[in-house]
Amino acid sequence: MSNPKYLVEMNDISVEFPGVKALDGVHFNAIPGEVHVLLGENGAGKSTIMKVLAGVNTNYTGTIIWKGEEIVAKSVEEQRERGVGIIFQELNLLDNLTVAENMFLGRQPLTKSGNIDWKKMNADARKLLDDIHSDIDEKIQVSKLTVGQKQMVEIAKSMSYHCDILIMDEPTSALTEKEVNALFELIHRLTAEGVAIVYISHRLAEIKQIGDRVTIFRDGKYVDTLNLKEITIDQMVALMVGREMTNYYPKVDVEPGEVLLEVKNFKQNATLKDVSFYARAGEITGFYGLMGAGRTELMRAVFGADPIDSGEVFVKGQKTVIKSPEQAVKQGIALLTEDRKQQGLILEFDLNQNISLPNLSTAMTKFGLNHKKETDNNQKLADSMRVKTPSLMQKAKNLSGGNQQKVVICKWLNTNSDIVIFDEPTRGIDVGAKAEIYSIMNELKEDGKAVIMVSSELAECMGVSDRIYVMHEGEITGLIERDQMKDVTEELVVGYATAATTMN
Ligand SMILES: Nc1ncnc2c1ncn2[C@@H]1O[C@H](COP(=O)(O)OP(=O)(O)OP(=O)(O)O)[C@@H](O)[C@H]1O
Ligand SMILES: [Mg+2]
Fold first, then answer.
1. Which one of 55, 184, 339, 431 is CB 3.0 to 4.6 Å from 79, fit for a cystine?
2. CATH superfamily label, 248-332+417-504
3. Terminal-residue alpha carbon distance, the chain
4. Answer CATH for 8-241 from 3.30.750.24, 3.40.462.20, 3.40.50.720, 3.40.50.300
5. Per-residue pLDDT tens for 277-297?
6. What's the rounded Cα separation, in Å, for the pair 49 and 8?
7. Atom 28 of ligand 1, residue of closest alpha carbon
8. 201 Cβ below 6 A of ligand 1
């Protein structure tokens, strides 16, 4: 039955969790030296099938043929031994250890006297990082790294195990362009050596660029396996969502109202150099820039999460001082963070508790929590975002990555704020859900709220925003006004973002 050209064949794989049929008789196979993309909406089962292959989800049914022989994937150690490497979607590093310690956790090299051989461990870590062209310091604490850097550490770590197949579950969702290029170079090197790569991503253009074949799942079911050369992005999307999508960026026309938020001369040591901007009611104000341009830092400073050295904030024309997120929430500001795991959700809490979080203090003072009303309201929010879960009693950690992101959005919509800041709201989110998020932004806009969107995706930023500020190295280097939006070119915006073009 088995075809000798395959490194691995997975047939009729099903996985069930309480209340969720995550996979329903799906197939997947891999050929040595190929990049095999796994595509599907949030919750389609992509991470689940790869966790079966990696020996994490052992509660599966179906058959796995590895190098021509039927096997049972019983444990992570056994699968790693066989040659299965995986970089998980949710990163698994320990914050208070160094990069090198994390890379060699549980298998540190020892000296003759049985102590940890720090010198060798650090040198080995350095070599692995150099191999992927990363200049991250191997001796630095992981807590000091950005999400993108943590991802690079995970990648370097996975390189230290020899593998025949390397699974990358959304490796680029937080990488800078330079890091993405280094990763692609690495993928080419590995495939040339005959390693099969499984590549999971929601970035469709990137998939076309790096992938050889694509397998598509929809709602836990197998759809098809195709050569990427033979299909277009629109065809991929149609197979994935089960319908044609024509308008990726629906726009609504609203007459802008008053300025709800104005920031003047924000300075924060090296990160923000004299930044001023405003956001109006009934408008989506976009912030474009490359990763590291200072947009997240700016929004965190506005929200009182990080201190500034100097500068002023006006909310609805009133000068205010915001020194903490609590004060920001009181002023009617919400911030949807980019890093859902660190700042967005409490993974051990259920969805109901997570969605209620920002409101808890106010709800408590009013004669205790009104549970029924709270839950009904949360359910409505979750339904409007089409969060895929059997119930709101599910723990956040059991949701797929993209569905966790949707819960973060529910949580902040729950605060009913007038100024809503979205930091990379669609990172790791499938095209169908992206459109839902845009329509929620549009609704907020129609309700007269000021929406601010930080985005690194140029098409999204240009497609959704009414005005765009462009940042580069902690400064606003470009501004596209409302009446200029229809004539603006990608080249101009990118020019501002790289400081190749300056405003006159
Ligand atoms: N440990 C678990 N307990 C309960 N349900 C789970 C668990 N792990 C996954 N699920 C559910 O199984 C389904 C498939 O999840 P999976 O993580 O495979 O999706 P995905 O395709 O990787 O999505 P995304 O693009 O959002 O990462 C989802 O409905 C998810 O909530
Ligand atoms: Mg996933």
1. 55
2. P-loop containing nucleotide triphosphate hydrolases (3.40.50.300)
3. 68
4. 3.40.50.300
5. 999 999 999 999 987 789 999
6. 13
7. 43
8. no
